[in-house]
Amino acid sequence: MDSHQLPPSYSIKRWLLTTNHKDVGILYLVTSLYFLILGGVLALIFRLQLAQPGLNILSPPAFNQAVTIHGLVMVLFVVSPLAFALANYVVPLQIGARDLAFPRLNALSYWLYLFGGLLVMISFFQDRTLDVGWTLYQPLTSVFSPYVGVNTGGLGLALLTASVTVSTVNFVVTIFRSRAKGLRLTALPMFTVGVLLTVLMMLYAFPALLAGIILLASDRILGTVYFTSPQGGAILWDHIFWFFGHPEVYIVLFPALGVFGDILVTFSRRPLFARRIIIAAMVVVATLSFLVWGHHMFLTGMHPDVRRAFTVTTIAISLPFDAIILSFIYTLAKARIELKTPMLFVLGSIAIFIIGGITGVFLGSIALDYVLRGTYFVVAHFHYTMAGGALVGLIAGVYYWYPKMTGRMFSEKLGRIHFILTMIGFNTLYFPFFLSWEMPRRVPIYVESLVPLQQIATVGGFIFGASFLVMFWNLLYSLRYGEPAGSNPWGAHTLEWMTESPPPPHNFDGTPTFVDGKLSFIAANGAAHGEPETHLSRWPFMLSLASFLALLGLTTHLLVSVVGVGLLAFSVLGLAGERFISREEDLGERWPFERVDRMKLAWWTFISSEVVLFGVILSAYVYVRTASSTWPAPGTLLDIGHGAVNTFILLTSSLTVVLALASSRMGSRTCTAGFLAATLGLGILFLFNKYNEWSELFSHGITFSSGLPASTFFLTTGIHGAHVFAGLLALGYLFARALKGAYVGKGHETLEYFGYYWHFVDIVWVFIFPLFYLV
Amino acid sequence: MVATTVDIFTSLWSIFSTLGVLVGVVVMAYMVYLIVRNRAKPEGPEPEDAPKPGELPREQKGAKKLLISVILSASIVLTLISLTFIALDNLDRPPAGAMEVKVIAFQWGWKFIYPNGYESIGELRIPRGTPVKLYVTSQDVFHNMGIISLRLKVDAIPGKTNIAWTRVYETGVYDIRCFELCGDGHGVMIGKLVVMDPEEFNSWYSSLQVS
Ligand code: HEM
Ligand SMILES: [Cu+2]
């Protein structure tokens, strides 16, 4: 197979194997729009149910499932993936890169996302999918919804978090390491700024979701008692979920803010107002977003001081938002505004978002939130921000970059019709929700007095739904019959418009650079040296398929899992052994990571997200422990001896890894292989000792479900053990290659990267040991 | 008459909604004004600093204008927050002499335990004018007890007891509903709060047989 050239776009092979960022972007685009239809149809069905108080279109369980899947699909499978679609296509172009830093990982993110979505869809056809609301409250989810589909759906979410983690690492490394020379971080186009901050928030928010899902799955499947016991329970989940959930709402929003910035500049023919302040404000928001989660818990009876603190942070976060939105509006002063479709959508979206932001301040006021929480007012607020601000904002982006992606213009007239229908439909649908603020959310029946409002909303829902049909028609029709777009139809200034539409596989002829303050191209030498780069790989698809099967089997037939795991091993080896050439841009702006090569940066980024994963799991332990009035004294439940031995073993193994790296640097094959073998042995010893410890506990009748002390111990050390196990698999591979002399002379970086991971896993143990065994 | 939960909410709500609508209208009117005024006319010249293809982004200076705007909104928001804290103090302080009732939420209904030990399901009777303090918990999942027409809401969480109070000056029947998704029966988890004439209440209450 000639993997340097992409097969033509009508070939299925191309779409299954491609690793090119533009292709992956298109895949994301099509898939997220597909999920948009799915989530939208679900919403229309339950809007029908709500057209009259006494209708029985959906039974209560069906209603709950529809509402839950609608929420999850829209937040996790539509808006963010749509943003990733644009980000995939546009970010490398905007920064002058040939592709993302890790093209295969990029394809992997996409396929994991798709297969995660498939799991959620399959769960529909099992005995009840998730029916507990997108917030997955406890203990409703952990014990009171004992359906198979809930498990499958949850595993789908886990696959999605894997996808997000992979893309996050990829985008962080790309934006930090592959910028054209002279493109400083502050000179990045706004969309890229938005994406960068989005992935940074994702990096630290999604591991919390993953930790939550792990604890939840373990409660449901293994019988641990994190959420069933009152010491953990509802409140523990609230903390974990909203620590993820609040940043998530900005994660959803930020790419749209970036879209606003770029489109405003292009169509108002002015530079952005106070651009650097906007960026600074976005950084502040991104940071603060991790400190406001408590405002979703005002009614849980939290300590008054804590409540007050969260009110202050919540209100504080509205100020940088003010600065951002006002700067966007001030940009319009003394401008020459062209009201083309993308601009119309941006202006409409900003207007809607303003309403969402103002009502957010209402909710941030505890005394009002006491009454508004759990009502349609909240539903209205977050649709104004998420659907109106984020989704409609991204639609603006789809129109804006459509000519770049396809080389054709869409019909401006249909675009305007879509815009008008969107504004009418959106507000007819959601404004009545503000006025329905006495109505609880997520109920299939309601009081007579609300009939008019709810009926208006249902009508609005259908208008809003229909508006998308206009868009789909427009985009499909113009693909074929649109006017040719040329490279820069909007007269924009950013780099993505300085190449053909659609751009060639390598994006630019020549290497773009901004060294003397404005764009010039250095004659193509990137492609000239060495072998051509690779653009096709079958492993991302295979790996995702394998993970999908492995998870699907857990809730259907274990044989499926077995096949999945086998395929997984095969694909991992395939991926590791594949010759895949992707070179880093040799002329690049890399501040502040000039000296950190891209693999190293990727590892550090990944490990920093793992810190959050373990941070949450350990915090959950500390939380339930402080909430419990009694806890076994050190040495009673757990044998300190086991812990101490294992601590010693792991610390020693850190040393042997260091020695292996040193030997490879010195060029000794035997020593390298020897120290790797020693590490491998120590790791196995660690797990063996762990196994003994667990079996002793089991033989004393202590299991996952014997109370919180046992649950937390098994889960935390289990997750840690899984990390050790993964490390051992990697070690086995490294050892086999080291025997053949792989890491002597060159390639010892691989050992270094592995070392980071291994040390990290050891450090985690250094926390676990005292926390569980000694205090 | 002493303030009720309804009064506290209503006064705060009217301030927020007045200011909210005002700010919203002003900002949007300004935006529309700018758009209408600056709509491109085909013959119009490009602004001098129009971004040119391939250029690095520039910015319009405006730190001062922005600072003033943000200070303005900060002062609005700070006012709102102080009002909130005042209201909150009142909400956190139930009046003395309250009748204390225990509420246990379950899938899918409400159980009430009166001071004398009497238990009832679905209906809570209270005397007009007397403050009532509710000790709310749940025996299974996370619920939320809301009597929206009294502007009262409190989470019902297993293993935890939350306190809310109210005082009603009008006899009548008020809906109690669940405001947190709690399973299949969430939509029909409806109870009644019956506010009675004090004398009627007393004769009813003293006639109760408590086992
Ligand atoms: C000025 C900025 C904002 C403030 C002060 C704010 C405040 C709040 C508060 C206090 C709540 C909790 C309400 C409750 O459940 O009782 C809330 C809910 C929510 N907000 Fe915002 N918000 C803001 C902006 C946003 C943005 C930008 C988004 C999304 C793009 C968003 C999405 C949501 C969502 C999804 C919920 C509901 C979650 C649920 O319970 O299902 N908010 N907001
Ligand atoms: Cu929030």
Explain what you see.
The complex is a heterodimer of chains A (775) and B (211). By secondary structure, chain A is mostly helical. Chain A has a domain at 630-774: Cytochrome c oxidase, subunit III, four-helix bundle (Four Helix Bundle (Hemerythrin (Met), subunit A)). Chain A contains 21 helices and five strands. In chain A, strand 3 and strand 4 form a beta hairpin. In chain A, helix 5 (148-177) packs across helix 17 and helix 7 (233-268) packs across helix 12. The longest helix of chain A has 36 residues, at 60-95. Chain A is globular and about 70 Å long. Chain B is an alpha+beta fold and 211 residues long. Chain B has two domains: 5-91; 99-206, Cupredoxins -  blue copper proteins (Immunoglobulin-like, Sandwich), CATH 2.60.40. Chain B is 34% helix and 28% strand. Chain B has helices at residues 5-37, 63-92, 198-206; strands at residues 59-60, 99-106, 109-113, 119-121, 123-127, 132-138, 143-147, 152-156, 162-166, 172-178, 190-196. In chain B, strands 4-3-2-6-9 form a five-stranded mixed β-sheet, with no helix packed on it. The longest helix of chain B is centred in the first third of the chain and has 33 residues, at 5-37. The interface between A and B is large, with 100 and 85 residues. Strand 2 (272-273) of chain A pairs parallel with strand 1 (59-60) of chain B, so a sheet runs across the interface. The structure holds protoporphyrin IX containing FE and copper (II) ion. Copper (II) ion (CU) binds at residues 246, 249, 292, 295-296 of chain A.
